[in-house]
């Protein structure tokens, strides 16, 4: 996407300690709404996470406000641009965790793995002694991952600890003391997964600084070990090298990413069904989806935004 595209997308997270996350919500939500910023931000006692989009002035104001929150002065922000607003509303949600792993005693601030810059990542994952783990969920891994990475096939991040413990037991049974390299979309899941691995007793634990998005932005395609596209949690659906918008779309019925081949299947009906959900939805549900799709098409023809549109997925990374 051109640097001149009107909308600026900012993906961010920061593990810090908020004594009262609920007290931070009203001012943050009001500022974003007043300045045309949309997206989703999650607040919890462990920090903030989310993706927002708007014109430059609005995003600058939102980021300035976020940087004034406790522990967020040096928050890292991954930015890209889009030709249209990729979100339909602004949400600031209160959560128990900003990325849900379900390990209540885990403190990511107590010690994460060693950060590895994108420029050094290829060397690390090319080492035959390195176990490379994709910490994302199965539908994300399905459209792209690093060459040779292990896929835990998790439906949610809550399943990762159980998978990791089982995998570690397998490696130790083989007499291996694993050197582990983990990666995710923007880095946040790796903050927790590497902290978890260290809490489980592993010493050599690494993660890709800034996640896949940072790698795709800084490593040239001809040197890349990334294969496929990277799923993102907004209307772009997927991105490739240079963060160019990818070829995937989103099924509005089941929220799964769809390749051009998926959309060529007979089971794909825009807004109604796709190969992933054709056998798991009732006729009543599909009728409801069809009516929603019809209303959205009518609104688009009038140059309006359909008030019932809800296309953005939850914030993650």
UniProtKB/TrEMBL annotation:
GO biological process: tRNA modification
Biased composition (Basic and acidic residues): 302-317
Source organism, top-level taxon: Bacteria
Keyword annotations from UniProtKB, A to Z: Oxidoreductase, Transferase, tRNA processing
Entry keyword DNA-binding: no
Catalysis performed (reactions): uridine(34) in tRNA + AH2 + O2 = 5-hydroxyuridine(34) in tRNA + A + H2O
The keyword Protein transport belongs to this UniProt entry's keyword annotation: no
Xref: Gene3D superfamilies: 3.30.70.100, Rhodanese-like domain
Region of interest (Disordered), residue spans: 288-317
Enzyme nomenclature, EC number: 1.14.-.-
Residue ranges occupied by any Rhodanese domain in the UniProt entry: 126-224
Gene Ontology molecular-function annotations: oxidoreductase activity, acting on paired donors, with incorporation or reduction of molecular oxygen; transferase activity
Coiled coil region boundaries: none
Pfam family, one: Rhodanese
PANTHER family for this protein: RHODANESE-LIKE DOMAIN-CONTAINING PROTEIN 7-RELATED, THIOSULFATE SULFURTRANSFERASE/RHODANESE-LIKE DOMAIN-CONTAINING PROTEIN 2
UniProt-listed NCBIfam families: PRK00142.1-4
Family of the protein in this entry: Belongs to the TrhO family.
Function: Catalyzes oxygen-dependent 5-hydroxyuridine (ho5U) modification at position 34 in tRNAs.
Protein name (database record): tRNA uridine(34) hydroxylase
Annotated organism of origin: Qipengyuania soli
Source taxonomy: Bacteria, Pseudomonadati, Pseudomonadota, Alphaproteobacteria, Sphingomonadales
């Amino acid at each position: 996407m051109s640097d001149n595209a009107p909308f600026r997308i900012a993906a961010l997270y920061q593990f810090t300690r908020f004594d009262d996350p609920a007290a931070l919500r009203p001012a943050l939500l009001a500022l974003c709404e007043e300045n045309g910023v949309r997206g989703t931000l999650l607040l919890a006692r462990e920090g903030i996470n989310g993706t927002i989009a708007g014109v430059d002035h609005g995003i600058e104001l939102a980021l300035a406000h976020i940087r004034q929150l406790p522990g967020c002065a040096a928050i890292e922000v991954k930015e890209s641009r889009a030709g249209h607003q990729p979100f339909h509303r602004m949400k600031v949600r209160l959560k128990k965790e900003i990325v849900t792993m379900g390990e209540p005693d885990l403190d990511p601030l107590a010690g994460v793995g060693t950060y590895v810059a994108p420029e050094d990542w290829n060397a690390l994952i090319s080492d035959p002694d390195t176990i490379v783990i994709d910490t994302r969920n199965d539908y994300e891994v399905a459209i792209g991952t690093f060459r040779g990475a292990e896929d835990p096939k998790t439906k949610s991040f809550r399943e990762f600890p159980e998978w990791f413990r089982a995998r570690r037991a397998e490696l130790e049974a083989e007499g291996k003391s694993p050197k582990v390299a983990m990666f995710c979309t923007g880095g946040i899941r790796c903050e927790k997964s590497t902290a978890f691995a260290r809490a489980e007793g592993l010493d050599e634990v690494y993660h890709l600084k800034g996640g896949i998005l940072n790698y795709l932005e800084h490593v040239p395609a001809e040197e890349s070990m990334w294969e496929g596209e990277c799923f993102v949690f907004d209307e772009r659906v997927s991105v490739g090298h240079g963060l160019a918008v990818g070829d995937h779309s989103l099924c509005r019925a089941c929220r799964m990413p769809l390749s051009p081949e998926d959309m060529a299947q007979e089971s794909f009906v825009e807004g109604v069904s796709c190969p992933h959900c054709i056998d798991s939805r009732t006729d009543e549900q599909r009728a409801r989806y069809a009516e929603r799709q019809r209303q959205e098409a009518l609104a688009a023809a009038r140059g309006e935004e359909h008030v019932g549109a809800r296309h953005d997925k939850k914030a993650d990374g």
